Amino acid sequence: MRKSRLTRKTKETDIKIDLNLNGTGKYSIDSSIPFLDHMLALMCKDGLIDMKLNARGDIDIDFHHTVEDIGIVLGKAFKQALGDMKGISRYGQASIPMDETIAMVSLDICARPYLVYKVDFPRRSKLKDFDPDLIEDFLQAFTGNAGITLHISVPYGRNTHHIIEAVFKALGRALRQAVAIDPGVKGIPSTKGKL
User: What are the φ/ψ torsions at residue 114 (nearest 5 degrees)?
Assistant: First the structure.
């Protein structure tokens, strides 16, 4: 069914996730970090991924632990939901414009985690109390635990919110392509016979 359910509890965070890769883009997300909730909702909607996420963390100290641990849990849930990966398309790419910016995402579900992140934010980046640098930490945790090679490039942009929104929409679209079952693929999509 390509579903997973995971819980991760540490002294810093308590996270529960239900994930369905055969979804319709339904989501219920509450991380106590509204900006991250918004970005994950966009990823689900564009990726046709159903997700229920509830996370609590030591956000009174900083958002870092919660953001990174959500990346870890999402990556593990994604890998678990993929199962044996037979028949998946494996590769995905998307270019998504958001007003003055564009985000380009290419990925490979290959069990070789690697993140290339070419995203610069305007000098006076401001997103209420959210640090835009945490997006890279989130993506590093996600790719490392999902086993994905992920390349993200944003060549230009003025508005930090638009830049990050384009990234998450493009990520959703690329994941949607990569996890899709391709009727022409028999077994594991690799000459090695294993991903």
Answer: -160, 135
Q: How many residues can be counted in the chain? A: 195
Q: Supply the pLDDT for residue 110.
A: 94
Q: Which residues contact 157 (CB under 8 A, 6 or more apart)?
A: 98, 100, 101, 102, 122, 163, 166
- 84 beta partners: none
DSSP state of 116: E
127-183 pLDDT, tens digit per residue, is 888 999 999 999 999 999 999 999 999 999 999 999 999 999 999 999 999 999 988
Domain 3-179 fold = Ribosomal Protein S5; domain 2 (3.30.230)
The rounded Cα 48 to chain-centroid distance in angstroms is 13
Query: Residue 132 corresponds to which tokens in the numbers above?
Result: 């835009």
